[in-house]
TrEMBL record:
Signal peptide limits: none
Identification of the protein by name: HAD-IA family hydrolase
InterPro entries: HAD-like_hydrolase_sf, HAD-like_sf, HAD-SF_hydro_IA, HAD_2, HAD_sf, PGP-like_dom2
Alphabetized UniProt keyword annotations: Hydrolase
GO molecular function: hydrolase activity; protein tyrosine kinase activity
Hydrolase found in the keyword field: yes
GO CC entries: cytosol
UniProt key word Metal-binding: no
Length: 211
């Protein structure tokens, strides 16, 4: 299948940002004077929007403060505790050279932070645009729909590439194909339960599907 519009998740798909995300959650709970969840529990926070996680783990009323504390840490330090997965830069470079393809980032991460991270990691030039969470659009489906609408993307030839069930659910919600990568934050069990259209276990397999 030929894809003309490719929408990439960021964390756990293109970059391993687990160290910075983990430290951000630890710092947030500590600053709020709350018990710090286990490492295993924090791992489950990687993928969903921050707003959703903190509403569930703290409270509806305390979520906004927690989000701000997390972002304060992440913007000052956490975003630099990340690196690209092996082979990803080469895949992005080759895709960006194809005049028949448009590639984007669609992440639940705060949009200004996502842009800073891409610049820091040297991958901004490969993307036609970068979309992230805003106060009005923070669920993956909302971010995807904004990107699809603004770029007049043909849904029949569009795909979301992601590592968690939230990416797969978001893609199905807006009516595009879904491609699951198995090296990220989501467990393979929960990821494959969403019946993605394609699965890649390596960056080479990712390239073979998208080229």
């Amino acid at each position: 299948m030929i894809f003309t519009h490719i929408f990439f998740d960021l964390d756990g798909t293109l970059i391993d940002s687990s160290e910075g995300i983990h430290n951000g959650f630890v710092q947030t709970f500590e600053r709020l004077g709350l018990p710090v969840p286990s490492n295993k529990k924090i791992r489950t926070f990687m993928g969903p929007p921050l707003e959703v996680t903190f509403r569930e783990e703290i409270s509806e009323e305390g979520a906004a403060q927690a989000v701000q504390l997390y972002r304060d840490y992440y913007e000052n330090k956490g975003q630099f505790e990340a690196h690209l997965y092996d082979g990803i830069k080469e895949v992005l470079e080759k895709l960006s050279q194809d005049p028949n393809k448009k590639i984007y980032i669609t992440t639940s991460k705060n949009e200004p932070t996502a842009r800073k991270m891409c610049k820091y990691l040297g991958i901004t030039e490969f993307f036609d645009d970068i979309y992230g969470a805003t106060p009005a659009t923070f669920n993956k489906a909302d971010v995807l729909q904004r990107a699809i609408t603004e770029n007049n993307a043909n849904k029949d030839h569009s795909v979301i590439v992601g590592d968690t069930k939230y990416d797969m659910i978001g893609g199905k919600t807006v009516g595009i194909k879904t491609l699951a990568v198995t090296w990220g934050f989501g467990t393979n069990e929960t990821l494959l339960e969403e019946n993605p259209d394609f699965v890649a276990d390596t960056s080479q397999e990712l390239w073979n599907i998208l080229k």
